[in-house]
Amino acid sequence: MKQSMTFIPTLREVPADAEVKSHQLMLRAGFIRQNTSGVYSYLPLAHKVLKKIEQIVREEMDKAGASELFMPALQQAELWQESGRWYSYGPELMRLKDRHGREFALGATHEEVITSLVRDEVKSYKRLPLSLYQIQTKFRDEKRPRFGILRGREFIMKDAYSFHATSESLDEGYQKMFNAYQNIFSRCGLDFRAVIADSGAMGGKDTHEFMVLSDIGEDTIAYSDTSQYAANIEMAPVIDSYEESIGEMEQLEKIETPNQKTIEEISAYLTVEREKCIKSILFKVDDRFVLVLVRGDHEVNDIKVKNLYGATVVDIATAEEVIENVKCVAGFIGPINVKSDIEIIADNAVKSISNGVCGANEEGFHYKGVNLKRDAKIDKYADLRFIQEGDKSPDGEGTIKFAKGIEVGHVFKLGTRYSEAMGATFLDENGRTQPMIMGCYGIGVSRTLAAIIEQHNDENGIVWPTTIAPYQIHIIPVNVKNDSQKNLAESLYNQFIQSGFEVLLDDRQERVGVKFADADLIGLPVRITVGKKAEEGIVEVKVRKTGEAFELAVTELQSKVKQILGNEK
Q: What is the phi/psi pair of residue 482, to 5°?
């Protein structure tokens, strides 16, 4: 492609509203432009990269035995009502009505649509297992779109769904998809980890997220420093054991603690370690109120609370709900003398606290000398806190460290969550009706594009891995008015194209400094500069990844470029 004939509007300055490197570089290098908050146009260079990512995805999905289809983005509300998600999915689901008042949603995901398709066509175990996928635009009304295309309201996604007659078949299909995802992200040149995760609004169990390691990631990964264990922080179990303090029980004493609401404040005010304080937080778990206790130096993991109850929605109680149920404001809540209809659960670490401190359910007061066996009724102890750096790894090998990650893929074992709700059944070998067992597998295609740039850049611009670069070679004649340079550049351009290379020829009438700056921004793997030695048949070759530059006779050029591109994969 000749650069004068395509659309690459580069920028010299970093846009003020671009917070992260991928957003900055995609704007500056002319890959994207914003239409409105969280919605972008993908310009020719970005479109080429997206198509290469999609091709890698298609190849690996085909190897895993999945067939491609294409489903509508506009989905009728009735399907979401069948699954029960029309009311539970939340405000991220974009809802609308047609001229007849019928309700629809713009597809945030396609479990309902694919389940309805398969239930109407597949009736026998002989047609199972079946795996289907699509690559399509999705819509989610994000509260705060940010980081360019990393968190937008319109994005490109690959979603796949598998249907099985047995759990063993699902396990096999899940492993195939897991392996396919590892291949996809490796071929895209990403440094990533597959981590144990929560299924969230998707439902189901047994799920892994594929996280690209990045300091700007919104998710925290807990990983072992000596093994392959990795999990999203919200899903990592705590296996630490706690020794109960030995000593005489103190008398329970109510003391005045004016304006001392936080653990830090009460710890300093009473000169007591945070580990001796009991943090009490009122949660609304679906339609019930639950008081959750953790040690003062720990944080409640609401996902663990949700999973303990098998709940759909878990939220911290509002200020009004706290006053109504425990008759005081947050900061002074405690487990002593709580209403009998409020269940009290505590993290395992709380069990070891003796002579501790907790709120007195009265503003401005706390209890000290608290011993829960004596002073309160705890309904259940469980692992309810977030894991911390330095904790034992859940697999028993090493200790936990944290890293930030960008989620680019997610695989789920949905089980019968949707098939039972929507009547997707089949006749088994004995003629009995059974619900189909499902899996779900998603990749953020446009997010993967941004994640690649987050990991592959330098101070001058993008540094594309060869496998997904928009072009492989950038040819730059220093002076297009010089016939020798212009003719050699065009000759090399045609030769490389005929040999199957993807080439961008900068034929613009621009200063060479502008061309070089744009070339670094765009970040193609190999740059060939045709300059003063054109008449001698000598050009300069520069490798974008290493910065290595050298002169070379054009007769040796193709073999050298093949070697460079082969080494850069």
A: -85, 120
Instruction: Summarize pLDDT for 226-244 with one digit per residue, the tens.
Output: 998 999 999 899 998 887 7
CA distance linking residue 273 with residue 275, whole number of Å: 5
Residue 26 to residue 30: CA distance in whole angstroms: 6
Residue 141, CB-side half-sphere exposure with 13 Å CA sphere: 10
Q: Model pTM greater than 0.70?
A: yes
Q: CB atoms < 10 A from the CB of 494, how many?
A: 12
Strand pairing category for 433-435 and 425-427: antiparallel
Query: Does position 205 have pLDDT exceeding 80, yes or no?
Result: no
> For 286, what's the count of Cα atoms within 13 Å in the CB-facing half-sphere?
8
> Side chain identity at 339, as an amino acid letter?
K
Position 202 pLDDT exceeds 50 = no
Per the CB < 8 A criterion, the answer to whether 418 and 111 are in contact is: yes
Share the mean pLDDT of the chain. 94
Q: What domains, with CATH codes, occur in the chain?
A: 17-205+410-453 (3.30.930.10), 253-382 (3.90.960.10), 471-568 (3.40.50.800)
Distance from C-alpha of 232 to C-alpha of 216, rounded to nearest angstrom: 15
CB 310 within 8 A of CB 199: no
State the maximum Cα–Cα separation within the chain, in Å, rounded to a whole number: 97
* C-alpha dihedral (292, 293, 297, 302), degrees to nearest 10: -20
Query: Are 361 and 331 within 8 A, CB to CB?
Result: no
Q: Residue 76: its pLDDT value, please?
A: 96
**What stretches of 327-392 show up as alpha helix (H) in DSSP?**
372-375
Q: What is the per-residue DSSP string for 287-343?
A: TEEEEEEEETTS-B-HHHHHHHHT-S-EEEPPHHHHHHHHSS-TTS--STT--TTSE
